[in-house]
Structures are given as structure tokens and as C-alpha cells.
Amino acid sequence: MTSPASSSEVKYLIESSEGNTFDVSGAALRQSNTFNAMFLNIGADGPIPFTDYNEATLKKVFEYCEHSVNEENYSGPKHQDDLSKWDLNFFNEMDQKMFIDVINASNFLDIERLTSYCCERIARMLRGKNTQEMIKVITLPTAEELEAKQKVEEKKAAAAKKVAEKAAETAEKTETLEELPVQQLVQTTRNKLTRKYLSFSNE
Amino acid sequence: MALKFTNFPYLVQKNILKNMELSEIFMTSLCSKKAKNCVILARIKVSKVWHEMRGNKLSIRIEQKGQRSRTIIKVSEVPEEQMRHAFRVRIGEDFDGLAKIRVRVSKRNENKQHYRIEVYHIGETLKNSLNDHFKALFQYRESCALLMDVSKISERMPNFGIVNEIFLVGKAIVELEDLERILSQWPNLDTLSIFPTIKGDFTDTSKILVAQNVFMKNIGAFGMNILKNFTGRNINLQRVDVVEAELREILIKWMNNEAYSKQRKTFILNY
């Protein structure tokens, strides 16, 4: 942690999943309840590891935090129609993968405002859609797909069970052979041989 | 990259659902078993539920505190020809059939919308499944209201749980026997409103007298009997065949505190 004199200018080093580090202002970072709970009072000696998320995602999240530093205190979800031009650009710039990563990161960092906006955005994607359309948007497996998946799993389980049973049977046979007394073992082998011989003679 | 709803953490799922309308939440729950579980886990509460059964329609309305009730789901029967683009829908544990789902947006308010599920036939399975599914989603255990057409009175009712308000509408005549049978299912009745004419033999042990607030529009000859035996709080009877002597007797008893101690308001119209 770099620690200049004024508390508003405090900068923290953040470490991403790639191992890269970058600066984030204390004011922006304080919007994260996770950070507040973990580091605010005790401070951090080195870079703060948020290694579950990549650099681009973290930078995007903290870009939002930096921007909303001067906004009034958060009071419940804001309607998407009330979003400023900057906010709209911020969301529209992201592709879907980045959007999902940002939601997950902001949920982990517990940044209420950003998580709420993202969730409302998803809710709006589903507005006015029926079940089939919803399934397409949020790619839920349909009942049929689930059924098919279950059948495949059942088949796999049955096959595995069969293999296990066969293995157990073979193990049992070997065990019984090993357990037999020597004389009996000789007798069994002899019987087998005779049977073979007989079968040969029949041919 | 897919936007997989069920892959989001629990708090995100809950947050998304809280940003949705109740009708949309209901629709999401019909997408898959996993989605249904997500809705249940989000613990979304609703205040008062209204079940409406009129003609070949079935609907569920929600009345939030201090607001007018809003329709969430409407199920209606449509002829087979109109089911061309129907798809398979599973509701609750038992119903698995073809349905068409459409969104209806209010003309007055764009934010108000409800879903219309169109099926070929509204059977008992669908009624029960819809009711069970709804109760499971919102973990609804409070008392609900029932608005039904008089023609539905002889049908078997789904298990609505506690019903404390009943509104009976329609133009057909109600047989008192059927009415008594249906009222015996819900002993904690608070409000009973009956618009159609009633036919049958009234007794002092009638279940109508259980309700605390009674409104009857075409009561006719029953009126005086009900008024005499009423032990609830408010009563509003219209088109009563008033017998003056009996009415005077009732009023004297009430004024002298000899009977009707709980009664607060009595309204009688003889036309």
C-alpha cells in the first residue's frame, strides 16, 4: 500500500489474477464493503490480492467506483431510465463476458450500487418475455434438455454399476480360487481340463 | 458467451429477481426446476392473494398493502385451432401440457403487465398445480380471497389454504345447499359477498352466519332470516323482502343491547 499523508489521496495496489498490479484510490475502494470489512481498519502491507478476477474486469469495476465517488449516498436501486449518459456508455461498452465478470466481481467486492444496476439490467432483458424467450436469454436448460441429460447420466451410472459388478465378480472368483485348499484346487483344474478334453473329443 | 442465470451467485440471483415484476418472477419459475428453486430461495413475499375463477378463465391477483390488486397470471381456455404455436409447459408437480404464453401490457400504465397462459382445457390438475406452484414460490401461508362465478360452485376447489374473503358473482341462481357445502370448507370467513339470487331452505345453523361481514344483493325472502340470526359486525342486504314487525323487533333488541352486541353497521334496501 502506498500511503501519502492525506487520507483522500491514499492509493492501494490491487493484484489481479494475472499477477499484475495497479493503483486504485482509497475513496473508490471504500465503496466496496468487502474491502471495508477486510482492510480498511488494519490496512494492507502489500498489494491487495483479488486474484479471482482478471485485470480488465477489476479495472472496469474500479472505473465505475472512481466515477461514482462524488455521487450522493446510495439509496436503493436507481431506475435504468434515470441512468446518466456516462453510466449508459459504461454498460454499453461491455461485451457479455465482461458484463458477467463485472457482476461477479462487484458481487464479491460487495459494491451495492454497481451490483444493483447490473441486476436491474438483466431483469430488463427479461421484461415482457415468455418462458421460451426467457430460456433463450438466460440460457437455462429446458425441461427436455434436463430430461435428456438425466437419461445420459442414468445410462452412465448403469454402465459404471455393471463394470463395478463384473470387477467384484472376478475378484470374488479369484478370491475363492485362492481360498481353496491345494488338493481341491488341483481337482478343480483337472475337472476343467477334462471338460476341455471332452469338448475336444466331441468335436 | 451465455448469460447463465443459474450460474450467478445466490445474492445476484436474488437481486435480479427483486428487480423483476411478480408476473415475470412467476414466468422465470416456469423455465426449469433450477429456476424455480432460485425463486423459492430468493424468499420473495407477497401480501394478499386473490384467486379468480370466472367463465373459462382463472387468474391470480396480488394486492400489495394500500394498493389496488394487480393481475399476475391469467389462464384461459382457447379452441384447439388457436394452439398452433403452443409449447410444452410444466406447472407445479403434475401439470405438463401444451400452452401459449403471452404478455399483456396495460394500456393505461406500461409498467403494469400480466401473463396470459392459454390452454386447451383448464382441468383440475392445472388448477391444483397452478395453486400449489404459486404457494410454493412465494411460500404463501396467509389467508387469501376467492372471487368466483356461481357456475363454478359445484366444481371441486383446489386447496387454497385459508380463505377469509369470498365474492360470489354471476347471473345464475345459487342453490343454498351448494353454497353451504362450499362455505363449510372455510370456517374462518371474514367477508362474504353474494351477488346472485339464492334458492333453498335457510336454517339457523347456516354457514352464511359465520362470516363477520356479509353483503348480499338479491337476498329476497332470506333477508329477514339472516338479519335476525346475524352475529357478525357489518351486514349489507339489498332487495330484501322486509317484514316491518320483524325489523322493528330486531332494532329494539339491538338498541336495548339484548342481541347483536358485535354488530356495527346494518344496511338494508328493499329494492
Written description of the protein model:
- Chain A: This is Skp1-related protein.
- Chain A: InterPro entries: SKP1, SKP1-like, SKP1-like_dim_sf, SKP1/BTB/POZ_sf, Skp1_comp_dimer, Skp1_comp_POZ.
- Chain A: Keywords: Ubl conjugation pathway.
- Chain A: Residues 14-69 form the SKP1 component POZ domain.
- The complex is a heterodimer of chains A (203) and B (271).
- Chain A has two domains: 7-138, Potassium Channel Kv1.1, Chain A (2-Layer Sandwich), CATH 3.30.710.10; 152-202.
- In chain A, 63% of the residues lie in helices and 6% in strands.
- Chain A contains nine helices and three strands.
- Chain A has helices at 26-29, 33-40, 55-67, 85-93, 96-109, 112-125, 131-138, 143-179, 182-202; strands spanning 11-15, 21-25, 48-49.
- A three-stranded mixed sheet of chain A has the order 2-1-3.
- Chain A is elongated.
- Chain A starts with 10 loop residues before the first strand and ends with a helix.
- The model of chain A is unreliable at 1-6 and 199-203 (pLDDT under 50).
- Chain B has a domain at 143-271.
- Chain B has helices at residues 10-18, 22-29, 33-42, 124-138, 176-183, 222-229, 244-255; strands spanning 48-54, 57-63, 70-77, 87-91, 95-105, 113-119, 144-149, 163-169, 174-175, 191-194, 198-199, 213-216, 234-237, 265-268.
- A twelve-stranded mixed sheet of chain B has the order 4-5-6-3-2-1-7-8-10-12-13-14.
- In chain B, a hairpin with a 7-residue loop joins strand 5 (95-105) and strand 6 (113-119).
- Chain A binds chain B through residues 77, 95-97, 99-100, 103-104, 107, 115-116, 118-120, 122-132, 134-135, 137-144, 146, and chain B through 1-6, 8-9, 11-12, 15-21, 24, 27-28, 30-35, 87-90, 101-103, 105, 113, 115.
